[in-house]
Design goal:
Elements lengths: L3 H4 L4 H9 L2 H12 L4 H8 L3 H13 L3 E8 L2 E7 L1 H4 L2 H15 L45 H14 L15 H5 L1
Antiparallel strand pairs: 1-2
C-alpha cells in the first residue's frame, strides 16, 4: 500500500519503499518477472485476497511499474505488463532472492538465478560498472548527491563524525531540516 510520507521524503530509498515497500506489491512484481500477467494468475500464485490484489495492481499501475493491457473486450479483461520502470526493479528482486536464500532458507535455495542456456547457478552481486569491482562497504559508501536535501547532508555529517569517534553528539535532524523538507 502506498505510503505518501515516504513517497515525499528526501531519501530515494524511502521514496522507493513508499511506492513498492508493501510485501504484496513485491510479491506481485516477483510474479510479473516470472511471467504472470493476469489477475487470476497473480491471485493464485500469491494466495492473496482479491480486494488486496486489486488495490496493489492499481497502485503499481498508477506508479508506472505495471501497465494495464486489454486482452478481451467481451467481457472486458486485462493483463498487467511490466513497464520499463518495472523492469528496472529486477535487480532488487534478484538481490532479495539471494539474501532470502542465504539467511532464511536453511533447507537450501528455494529459487535461484541460472544462466538460461546452461542452467548454471549464478550468484547475484553488485559491481561498479566503471571498474567491474564488487561493491563492498569497505570500499564504497552512500554520500549526499548533488540534489541532496539539508537533512540528507546533516545525516551524512553526523555519521561521519560518529565513525570518527565523536560520541558526544546527539542525532537531531529536525533542527537542520529546511522549510521545504518540513512540508514534505
Amino acid at each position: 500500500m502506498r505510503n505518501e510520507p515516504l513517497c515525499n521524503a528526501p531519501c530515494p530509498i524511502a521514496r522507493s519503499l513508499g511506492r513498492i515497500g508493501d510485501s504484496w506489491s513485491m510479491i506481485i512484481l516477483r510474479d510479473a518477472f516470472a511471467g504472470f500477467t493476469r489477475f487470476d494468475e497473480f491471485q493464485k500464485s500469491a494466495n492473496v485476497a482479491p480486494n488486496i490484489l486489486s488495490r496493489r495492481l492499481k497502485e503499481l499501475v498508477d506508479d508506472g511499474l505495471l501497465e494495464k493491457v486489454s486482452y478481451s473486450t467481451t467481457p472486458p479483461r486485462y493483463e498487467y505488463h511490466l513497464t520499463a520502470l518495472g523492469r528496472d526493479f529486477r535487480p532488487v528482486i534478484l538481490a532479495l532472492a539471494e539474501w532470502g536464500n542465504r539467511y532464511f532458507s536453511p533447507e537450501g535455495a528455494q529459487i535461484q538465478l541460472v544462466e538460461r542456456e546452461t542452467q548454471r547457478p549464478v550468484e547475484t552481486i553488485l559491481i561498479d560498472k566503471a571498474t567491474g569491482e564488487t561493491i563492498t562497504p569497505e570500499k564504497y559508501a552512500l554520500m549526499p548527491g548533488p540534489a541532496a536535501a539539508p537533512v540528507i547532508h546533516y545525516r551524512h555529517d553526523y555519521l561521519q563524525r560518529k565513525h570518527a569517534g565523536d560520541n558526544t553528539q546527539k542525532f537531531a535532524p529536525l533542527h537542520y531540516v529546511s522549510r521545504d523538507d518540513d512540508a514534505q
